[in-house]
Amino acid sequence: MTTPYRTMTIFTFLPDTAICDDCLKELFDPESKRYLYPYIGCPNCGPRYALMKNVPFERQNTTMADWEMCPSCKEEYENPQNRRYHAELNCCPQCGPNYYLFENGQRVEGEEMFRRVAELLNAGETLLVKNNGGYHLVCDAFNGKAVQVMRNKLGRPRKAFAIMVKDLEAAKEIVHLSEKEEEILLSKRRPILLAKSKNEELSSIVAPNNTDIGLMVPYTGLQHLLFHFGAPRYIVMTSANYPGEPTIHKDDQLTGLMEDFQCAALIGEREIERSVDDTVLKVTKLGAVPFRRSRGYNNLLDIALPSSRPILTVGADLKSTITLVKDQKVVMSHHLGDMTKYGTQLKFERTVKDYLAIHGVDLSETIIGYDLHPEYFTTKFAQTLEGCQHVAVQHHKAHLASILAVKNKLSERVVGIVFDGAGFGEDGEIWGGEIFVGSVQEGFTRHGHLRKASLIGGDAAATYPLQALAGFIGDFDKDLFERLQLPDPFPKALKIKEKNIRTFPTTSVGRLYDAVAALLGFHLDNSFEGEAAIALEYLASQSKVEEVYTFPWTGEELDYRPLFEEMIQSKLKDQSPSVIARGFHRSLAQAVVDVIQSLCEEYDTNYAVLSGGVFHNSLLVSDIFDLLEGSKIEILYDDEVPLGDNCISLGQAAILSATIIE
């Protein structure tokens, strides 16, 4: 006989928020005891999650436990009439903690510290700066030489760097901002906002081949002080980590980066319990879509998932999160990173341990959910946990379920379109261009997909766009390839395909984007995930729609062959690559709309869901909405959960909640 799970109170970590207006005013008030004090804060603002060791949020459960308040701070803390009443992190320059600059073995403090930091940044130097959730690498964003040094040291030759701007007026000088985007920039979350660039010089330095610049405004007292003392108005502020590694948040981790960059470090004495990355958002027709859900978000979601037992789900290997369901309440972690490096794996394992312990969950009574991919780190880890039941959930179905969960439409039948780079399919093949009909409660039926192409070289096809192109047009007329004059590794990929060496079928729209980018001249290796697709969107943004290509929905598959045939003919006729790229986006959007309209009519529903990283492409999404204008069909979306793999753990939990019956 199964023992019912014990009902217990679920706790939550409080989100880290930006400095409030009252504290900001006080920061620059010479009469205040916290004048120019970087750690200024109050009950309404500042870090929480990054500093918490346990719940509830009380000083003894944070990294401030060993810092004793001075009599003045103690009086504020205990006085119900004071705005710092029960401010658990309350402190001031007298009782500490504080900041200091460590440069060439010397320690510099106070106003001299800030002046020296500004001097170094204006001279083109790089600094390590401790913020609320970890260290950032910082340099002058307009100093091409300084940014290039950062790229070389980090192995990031072309990936965009986020920048911090002094204020909203500075932001408006370099990007186009709507009222909604201004509101987001100044919100308590203070995310990195991806906004359309209007400064080509800056774009070429920090975000090459990209329509957007990722920017944020100050969210800590320290950051405001940097600009106050004369730091450049635009500074690169990127997480201090090598690709794939977690952000450095402990002071004893600094040595390697300081040696590599030969740089100084602005060090805060307040310890950080866990690293928390900056949230990344972009405003599209789907709303303010989070690309990375992290700093500023509440871990306790405003949804309920019924389950007689607790559920723990571990997401996917990229953009990983975990989700815990207990007493119908849902707790979703912040962004944990990509499980490609040992350090990130340790961070993931610790997060699982923390969540189980803090919420009083007994693993032996817990249902464990994970991705269907047998080689994922998260899958293997989940299978080692001693839960009461282990269940694999298909990747793309989890994508759909996450959105339906946050919209509280678990029983609603929808048409679901999930486009991404790769996910393990139920047939053992690599999916990524999937079309579903169904609901979370009744299940999703795969009703169609992108026509299968060849994934030549396996995972390597995601690195080499020309290799991806060979997988899509390798069966075309061989004379055509000579006319296209495609460089290596295209001909080498064809030989691999002919010999059927590590060549697998795939329905990936992510690889479709890579292939089209390669056809139109992107012959570089992808130096980061999605680089070719971002470059293709950038190319397309330079033209209006002049051509639309044939991309038919057969009722079972989206057939890309006519699409490529017509794009190739346009290319051979010397049509502008930007016009072809724009036509590709419109053609894909039309194909998506054809599928949605056909299946919504067939299955008597007016709801459709778009999910997967491909739909981060704002041009594609805008075209879909334009083509659906006047239709009764409603696209379901939410601005709390990302379209990419950050959402997988939530979707897994929703499916398990709806389908597991004891």
Automatic annotation (TrEMBL):
Q: Which InterPro entries match?
A: ATPase_NBD, Carbamoyltrans_HypF-like, Carbamoyltransferase_HypF, DHBP_synth_RibB-like_a/b_dom, HypF_C, HypF_C_2, Sua5-like_dom, Znf_HypF
Q: One MF term in GO for this entry?
A: ligase activity
For this protein, the Enzyme Commission number is 6.1.2.-
One Pfam entry name: zf-HYPF
The segment(s) forming the YrdC-like domain are 111-296
SUPFAM superfamilies of this UniProt entry? Actin-like ATPase domain, YrdC/RibB
Q: Which UniProt keywords apply?
A: Ligase
Question: What PANTHER family is this protein classified in?
Answer: CARBAMOYLTRANSFERASE, CARBAMOYLTRANSFERASE HYPF
Q: What is the similarity comment for this entry?
A: Belongs to the carbamoyltransferase HypF family.
Write the protein's name: Carbamoyltransferase HypF
The species this protein belongs to is Ureibacillus suwonensis
Please name the gene that encodes this protein.
hypF
